[in-house]
Amino acid sequence: MSRPRIVIVGAGFAGYRTARTLSRLTRHQADITLLNPTDYFLYLPLLPQVAAGILEPRRVTVSLSGSLPHVRLVLGEADGVDLDEHTVHYTGPEGGEGTLSFDRLVLAAGSVNKLLPVPGVAEHAHGFRGLPEALYLRDHVTRQVELAAASDDRGECAARCTFVVVGAGYTGTEVAAHGAMYTDAQVRKHPMRTGMRPRWMLLDVAPRVLPEMDERLSRTADRVLRQRGVDVRMGTSVKEATHDGVVLTDGTSVDTRTLVWCVGVRPDPLVESLGLPVERGRLLVDPHLQVPGRPELFACGDVAAVPDLTQPGQFTPMTAQHAWRHGKVCAQNVAASLGIGERRPYHHRDLGFVVDLGGAKAAANPLGLPMSGPAAGAVTRGYHLAAMPGNRVRVAADWLLDAVLPRQAVQLGLVRSWSVPLESSSPEVARVAGRPERDAEQTATTGTTGTTGTTGTTGKGSRAERAKNQPGGEPAKNQPGGEPAKNQPHPPRAAGKPRRAGDGGGTGPARGSGKARKTSRASGGGRAAAPSGPTRAAGPPADPGPEPPANQPPPGPDIAPGPVKRTDGRHAEGDS
Fold first, then answer.
1. Which of 291, 374, 414, 441 could form a disulfide with 360 if both were Cys (CB 3.0 to 4.6 A apart)?
2. pLDDT for 254-290, tens place per residue?
3. What is the Cα–Cα distance from 403 to 105, expressed in whole angstroms?
4. First to last CA, the chain
5. How far apart are CA 576 and CA 554, in angstroms?
6. 485 CB contacts (<8 Å, ≥6 apart)?
7. Taking the model in full, what pTM does it have?
8. Percentages (nearest 5) of helix, strand, coil residues in the chain
9. For residue 305, which phi and psi values (nearest 5 degrees)?
């Protein structure tokens, strides 16, 4: 008799805990497969410290294969689920497609950035949900301070030293608190930067900072932010964003080159493609985290609307604490469905929250006891060390070094602005050159703007063909990480090199359209049909001899093939 097959989609807090607990409970009596776009579990609460240069990126990641030795790891992103056939279709990081069969399926795909219809935000703002976004923000903030110090224009210097964070929730508050400390350290002891004053702004339409948490935590965080010079504006948000600044809802214009979008998250669009009952985008489950009428399907974490038994009629909020606890209960109930152990409902008790404000400052209410100052800082860091499933010694070592040594404020240029678009629904994976977004490429290759063909519920079709000739996503030739300056003319392309479909200006959809990377899944699991014609220019290649193609000057020795193309069909305009 074959062993039951369990597939877990997502390795966030809920998915990772489910896989780890199931591996222990089943004791090799089941085949467990974990499908995830990356090979690590990301400890999200410490991401602001990565952006502020306190922790190295690998400190907040835990290897999946190293910590889950009895779980099969499959790198890929789920595109569709066929519940009748008991299969999950996925696309790998290099464009290859595959299918996983299951007897039990656990959906723990997590959440993605929430994009509101604010003009210019999609083009000029960046989110803060994944490691690439944190690395980009650290480089970008460092670069703006360095460019401001070298500028002779006082207006440009002030704009580059102004950093706007939208969203005063858990993430936005910590980003602003750590960011203010990071930029102050860059200018405080530098003799050539005397007089520079970095300015951080924290905006939210809510009446107070941390509106979803205890009011005493809110007051503590607000006080610390204002003491550090953060301009906290409640009841205010962004009305419009441009390359040179933002217009606020109160009519104020702010010149800035940095807009960090932390307004919240939404469940992964994969949930909507299932055609099952949802609650605000979250899959409805019973207290045992099982989908009614589907005994083989379980859901936990941010994609699941789990009844809150302590507050009848309510659902548990989308927090890391709940996701971590969901994972344990979900694993126990999946094992019980296989005859191992007994089922149990999800019932929680609030243990309180901690908010790290940088340095020795924090706000915490462990077990309902409000705390602030160094005591709260010690409790906060102790909680994070206890909650992390690995790297505790390395994290503690980085904290110790940060306390006694100055931070290394350098930009590595590993993640560029076009690699972390705000509308991306896969913030854990940085976009690479030569592999544009699905929606942009579908529009460019099919020539349509509002209709797409479908190839079935599993989502198979054009993606593998589009990625076939791009196995590694290599960056554009002669472009070693740099981005073209704003308003620079497009240099001519090298002779004999055909233009890719969609390279022309304006053929792809505008980024401001708000389309997410996985929107094709949310429309019913179907995918756009493969284009009937080739995606490259038809006809034989240009003669490599001395005669250049029509309307193109012969390439000189210093002419590059052109800047890296944006996925919306326009040229990159720098790190807005």
1. 374
2. 999 999 999 988 999 999 999 999 999 999 999 999 9
3. 45
4. 58
5. 33
6. 574
7. 0.76
8. 30, 20, 50
9. -90, 95
